[in-house]
TrEMBL record:
Species in which this protein is naturally found: Auraticoccus cholistanensis
Key word RNA-binding present: yes
Subunit organization: Homotetramer.
The protein, known as: Zinc-binding dehydrogenase
Pfam families associated with the record: ADH_N, ADH_zinc_N_2
CDD domains recorded: MDR_like_2 (cd05289)
Gene Ontology molecular function: oxidoreductase activity; RNA binding; zinc ion binding
GO cellular component: cytoplasm
Location(s), subcellular: Cytoplasm
Chief location: cytoplasm
Length: 307
């Protein structure tokens, strides 16, 4: 099969595109023909060795944790799925090796959701990790009706989904973003504020008594978060483990097919919009990584593997 891979840690120069053996699948896995994958910052952070102390790695590594595709084969302990089913998944395994930037990938059945017919391939591939990260963070924060929530990096891949999920949960949402993305946030019913110097004052103008919850999807904003929280407010971060020292929650997301199905169904009925910022082929993954590394991507970058 054709795949992107790397055989040592490094920057994009370690990426190669070529043929690799087709992956074997276990009893509780399915083999998926990949239609689309998508880029998450964790993909190039893994490539740089950033999680070497946490996760076992087997080289060569095929990067990518998001996938949307068609089931080609099933293991003997997968009665939920059949050959030909259209699926999506946050396909992270317990070690780093066979990812989704390839023509074929194995996926544990616990991570799979069915792709609704109304959900396009690009959106289906862009949704899993970002969507589940946003959803898990907001649920851990207990966000609900009547809450005022501040979302850091509201125009990023996770943030754009997070502000919509928070609105769906009944919250009033303030989102940090560059001014170029303010109109998009307003379209989603979010009050935008510019990040950087003066953020605390800008948020306090909108919420004089402080916000009920803060979802940090970027890191490096702990001081501002603590300064805008109301008494008894909750905060969580996906990028700053140190928030636990200040009463916050560090969120690490495990694959959950049932949870992903909820998000896919929301997106299929138009209650959750998935923004795609760019499309790349397997030969262009290095370009996609470079763009992701620069930051300021509004939405997700999709990898087209087949039609």
């Amino acid at each position: 099969m054709r795949a992107v891979s790397y055989s040592e840690y490094g920057d994009v120069d370690v990426l190669t595109v070529g043929d690799l053996p087709e992956p074997r699948f276990g009893p509780s896995e399915v083999l998926v023909e990949v239609r689309r994958a998508s880029v998450n910052p964790v993909d190039w952070k893994l490539m740089a060795g950033g999680l070497d102390a946490m996760m076992e790695v087997q080289f060569p590594v095929v990067p990518g944790w998001d996938v949307a595709g068609v089931v080609r084969a099933v293991g003997p302990d997968t009665p939920e799925f059949s050959v030909g089913d259209e699926v999506l998944a946050y396909a992270r395994k317990d070690w780093v090796h066979g990812g989704t930037f390839a023509e074929l990938v194995t996926v544990p059945v616990r991570a799979l959701a069915r792709k609704p017919a109304e959900l396009g391939w690009d959106a289906a591939a862009a949704l899993p990790l970002a969507g589940q990260t946003a959803y898990r963070t907001l649920k851990r924060l207990g966000v609900g009706s009547g809450d005022t929530v501040l979302v850091h990096a509201a125009a990023g891949g996770v943030g754009l989904l997070g502000v919509q999920i928070a609105r769906e949960l009944g919250a009033t949402v303030i989102g940090t973003a560059s001014e170029a993305n303010h109109d998009r946030l307003r379209e989603l019913g979010v009050t935008p504020v510019t990040y950087g110097d003066g953020l605390v004052e800008r948020v306090r103008e909108l919420a004089p008594d402080g916000v009920d919850a803060v979802a940090d999807f970027v890191g490096g904003v702990r001081e501002q978060t603590l300064a805008v929280l109301a008494d008894g407010g909750r905060h969580a971060s996906v990028a700053d483990p140190g928030v636990t020292e200040h009463g916050g929650t560090w969120v690490w997301v495990r694959p959950d097919g049932a949870e992903l199905q909820e998000l896919a169904d929301l997106a299929a009925r138009g209650a959750l919009q998935v923004d795609v910022a760019g499309r790349y082929g397997l030969d262009e993954v290095a370009d996609a990584f470079r763009r992701s590394q620069q930051g300021h991507v509004r939405g997700k970058l999709v990898i087209t593997v087949s039609d």
